[in-house]
Amino acid sequence: MLVARYTRVSTGRQEKEETIENHIMVIDEFVKKNGRNIVKDYQDNGWSGSILARPGLDELRLDA
Asked: Model-level pTM?
């Protein structure tokens, strides 16, 4: 199974708390534990979850 990693932070507070790094760490642990490999990484920093048109998410959709 191929795995694509998508991470996003939407607020300045989340960025200050390094939330995206925490998300990456948790995803990486899960992927390693389950014997998978991440083939591509997608990120959207500062994009609201209420908007579905986000550059990283759009790229992920196109690649899928």
From this structure: 0.75
